[in-house]
Design brief:
The chain has 4 helices and no strands. Helix 1 packs across helix 2 and helix 2 packs antiparallel against helix 4. The longest helix has 19 residues. It has one domain. By secondary structure, it is mostly helical.
């Protein structure tokens, strides 16, 4: 795995943890910037580090492809994406349109 792709994937795993810790009713939609790193590893069957597996709720030895599916599932069906300042939590008082 290319080091840059690995670093990007590790970054979104950390973001996923922060996002998952926010109660669902206050959580922002999953961010679109997860798409790129997820698609870069979607075909990799190499095992992820144990810490990444645990962070994504996967069993130890899960592949990067398994991890990518976690991200793609979180994005599926969404009709909006958050602005970077609205991640990982929705604004407390949405601004009127």
């Amino acid at each position: 795995m290319h080091r840059a792709a690995n670093l990007q994937f590790e970054r979104i795993v950390d973001e996923f943890v922060r996002w998952s810790e926010v109660p669902e009713e206050a959580r922002s939609p999953a961010p679109g910037w997860w798409w790129g790193p997820a698609f870069e590893v979607v075909g990799l069957q190499n095992p992820m580090p144990a810490a990444s597996c645990a962070s994504l709720g996967l069993t130890e030895g899960a592949s990067y492809a398994d991890g990518a599916r976690v991200f793609l599932k979180s994005l599926a069906g969404q009709t909006s994406l958050p602005w970077p300042d609205e991640f990982p939590r929705r604004p407390a008082h949405p601004e009127p349109l």
